[in-house]
Design goal:
Layout (H helix, E strand, L loop, with lengths): L1 H6 L9 H7 L2 H5 L1 E8 L2 H7 L5 H12 L9 E4 L2 E7 L3 H14 L4 E3 L2 E3 L3 E6 L6 H14 L7 E3 L5 H8 L1 H9 L1
Parallel strand pairs: 6-7
Antiparallel strand pairs: 1-3, 1-6, 2-3, 4-5
């Protein structure tokens, strides 16, 4: 039962990001693009809905994100983040595909008598990394940098691991140099 709670969301039954991390072998991970969709008004909507409607709303979102491919396996990461994988393809072609999904999301979802607008943007990791956890984290980070206006699709930027870790600890290095 504990494992089920880690691999599947308790409210919706959707597989979680953890299930995605565990479910792909290194070769499949290396040849796939990881996409994370970010629903921008997610918390606003949940705060306005009765708690009993939250799972239904999340399921409606997942259905909408599958509209271009009903068989697509979606993973729920909480807080309005959904992920899936696709075979690697060129950046322009993938951007066009995601912008098409974004257009399909402009129609509001209907929950009971309410029509709720959806605003979505995407983060993508199309690298050849063979770690699902790293690719998912990079795609989620890219999604968090996306926005509705001018950056609806953001691709993860990769630097060498040592350089990236150095950049992440720069404040500490500056503080130490000042002392």
């Amino acid at each position: 039962a504990r494992s089920r709670g880690i691999l599947y969301d308790d409210r919706t039954g959707l597989p979680t990001f953890r299930a995605l991390e565990r479910g792909l072998n290194a070769q499949k991970t290396q040849t796939s693009s990881f996409i994370v969709a970010r629903i921008h008004n997610f918390d606003d909507v949940l705060s306005a809905l009765p708690e009993g409607s939250h799972a239904a709303y999340i399921k409606l979102l997942s259905d909408r994100l599958r509209v271009a491919d009903e068989d697509r396996q979606l993973y729920y990461g909480g807080n309005g983040y959904f992920a899936w994988t696709m075979p690697a393809m060129g950046r322009e072609r993938l951007t066009d595909h995601l912008l098409g999904i974004r257009l399909l999301c402009y129609d509001p979802v209907k929950l009971d008598e309410d029509a709720i607008d959806i605003t979505v943007s995407f983060g993508v990791d199309g690298s050849a990394d063979n770690s699902a956890a790293r690719k998912l984290a990079a795609a989620r980070n890219a999604a968090s940098q996306s926005n509705q206006a001018d950056r609806p699709v953001v691709f993860a930027q990769h630097t060498a691991d040592e350089e990236h870790l150095w950049q992440l600890s720069i404040q500490h290095k500056i503080d130490a140099a000042i002392e």
